[in-house]
Amino acid sequence: MQPRTQEMTTAKKLSTLRRAMLEHQIDAYIVPSTDPHQSEYPAPRWAAREWLSGFTGSAGTLVVTLHESKLWTDGRYFSQANAQLADTEIGLMKDRLPETPGIEAWLGSTLMSGQNVGVDGRVVSEAIARRLRKKLEEQELNLIVEEDLIRGIWPDRPDVPSKPVFEHDADLAGETWQDRIEKMMAWQGAHDLDYYVVSALDEVAWLLNMRGSDIDFNPLCVAYLIVGTQGDHTLFAAARKDFDAWTDKVGDGQTLEVHDYKKISSFLRRINATDADIGFDRATISTRLATYAGNERSSHFASPIPAWKAIKNDAALGHLRRTMKQDGVALLKLFSWLQKNNVTEAEVAHKLTELRSQQPGYVTDSFPAIVGYAGNGAIIHYRAPEEGSARIKKEGLLLLDSGGQYTSGTTDITRTVALGEVSQEMKENFTRVLQGHIDLAMAKFPVGTTGIQLDVLARMPLWQAQLDYGHGTGHGVGYFLNVHEGPMGIHSRVDAPNGRVPLAAGMILSNEPGYYKEGTYGIRTENLVVVREADRAGWLEFETITLYPIDRSLVVEDMMTRPQVQWLGDYNSRVFDELSPLLEKEDLAYLKSLIV
Q: Which helix (H) or strand (E) holds 438?
């Protein structure tokens, strides 16, 4: 009998995994961060990498051989990983640095020719499995995808979640889910598909206007949806009583059946046996399900849904603009409260959640708030511990990155504020970050421009001082969906496909350059922007929709150009005009103090 989880140290878990590897003749086992739907933030059932290693970052891959173990993660998490892996055998591999070998190359140098590398085919996508198999074959290694070794060693592994779901009202979404299903059926018909497997959770949520809480901070239901071109649709999810809103209201001549989440494999095998033409997206379907769908003869079409949901309709954008006012009020109350109280980072995070929850339509936060005081601000994805988090003093810098999930939109904002005396270096670097933020916000660009083409605008003021930041400049944002959403993005990485997606009117992205001095301070200024048509045909521009003042006490105006100074003044004035009618006397006075 296996020991209970709470009694198992990381060393014990790795030892137990290695026994399972020996039993299945696997010489190295890869544990990714993903779930069967390729989610960025998996439900607890699929948090195997975190359970094994103790590393809690959202991105990372653990590789365990019979003699050693390594964890690959990117620059956002180097500091966090160093701390969380310190008392374990697991070595940190700093991904994307020139000196760090990739997983396949490292395995090739560690294992002998003909040895076996395992990964759970239930959680690795068909696209990744194909690339991994090819690279391992080049190293004369074999890939085994049949074994879920974690299942046999995790004694109290959480179940597939089954929390309540609800329909996102069409007045808020701007479109009925029945219309979206019809659009999907038409697309399938145009591609001669009998069925299409929708695997990504946010795609299921968007297509059905379905929202849930199966995953913290993400209003999603863990489910698959198979859309039938003839109107026979099937949802696979853990049992719950809330699906009548869909099964009873599907369009004329259509049916929507609900089956147990684990039955999708047998369902795909059955319809595959009828020679039905089944389509799926290799990037989001697991390699195991791809096999059941008839992989080699199935139709591999990238899902059209990410491109559809990236373009927010006018109704959604109208609701989101109002939501930005509410979110700005909550943040204003938070900083006003912080001025008067001696608190810790964790207490700030809790207070902000409380203040957001008082706003209309609030459902949950969109991610755990990053409240980084002084040196903790340099940890890009820092999360203050409940016990022992830093007490905030009346000096230095505080970086606060946070957001909310409202039925009327998703928010994400970062502000860096001076709490008292700050150094000239801090002011100059804050100004450089702000210059990059403003230059990107003011950009006008021709239709067809991609994020990778725009990224340099945000970095140039820092580059001129030979400074940089190790994360993307902007990510797509969902509408009451995931705070990180594709298919577009703004960053400098040439190997990332979302940087090559042309921006289009209606897309929402973040604008968030930063600078981080390890152990000393962090700076980031983030607003959300909407891509819109410019005043000349064939051109686009950004509309900044986030509403909260930028701290002028940190700005060295002599470093800025006249248009940059004008933008800052106009932005803060607009914030005042938008928020002041919503504020009580005391909060209004605080807002005035920030604008002056």
A: helix 424-441
193 in the same domain as 68: no
Helix, strand, coil percent values for the chain (each to nearest 5): 40, 20, 40
Could you tell me the CATH number of the domain that includes residue 40? 3.40.350.10
Phi, psi of 523 (to 5 degrees): -135, 130
C-alpha dihedral sign at 422, 428, 433, 435: positive
3-state secondary structure of 478: coil
The tally of domains found in the chain comes to 3
| pLDDT band, residue 326 (cuts 50/70/90) | very high
Q: Which residues contact 110 (CB under 8 A, 6 or more apart)?
A: 28, 65, 68
SS3 72: strand
Residue-wise pLDDT for 538-561, tens only, equals 999 999 999 999 999 999 999 999
Residue 1 has pLDDT above 80, yes or no: no
Instruction: Output the DSSP codes for 189-251.
Output: HHTT-SEEEE-SHHHHHHHHTEEE-SBTTB----EEEEEETTSEEEEEE---STTHHHHTSPP
Q: What is the DSSP string of 290-359?
A: HHHTTGGGSEE---SHHHHHHS--HHHHHHHHHHHHHHHHHHHHHHHHHHH---BHHHHHHHHHHHHHTS
CB 58 within 8 A of CB 33: yes
Global confidence as pTM = 0.94
pLDDT tens-place string over residues 281-324: 999 999 999 999 987 766 788 999 999 999 999 999 999 999 99
143-180 as b/e: b if 16+ CB within 10 A: bbbebbbbebbbeebeebbbeebbbbeeebbeebbbeb
Distance separating alpha carbons of residues 240 and 235, to the nearest angstrom: 12
Q: Output the furthest CA–CA distance in the chain (Å, rounded).
A: 73
Statement to judge: residues 279 and 358 lie in one domain: no
d(CA 528, CA 121) in angstroms, rounded, equals 36
CB–CB of 205/244 below 8 Å? Answer: no
Q: In whole angstroms, give the CA distance from residue 85 to residue 383.
A: 16
* 180 and 129 within one domain: no
Residues paired with residue 71 on neighbouring β-strands, in sequence order: 62, 92
pLDDT per residue over 393-451, tens digit each? 999 999 999 999 999 999 999 999 999 999 999 999 999 999 999 999 999 999 999 99
Select from 126, 152, 178 the last residue of a domain. Answer: 152
Confirm whether 160 is domain-assigned.
no
Are residues 286 and 335 located together in one domain of the fold?
Answer: no
Task: Say if residue 378 is in the same domain as residue 256.
Answer: no
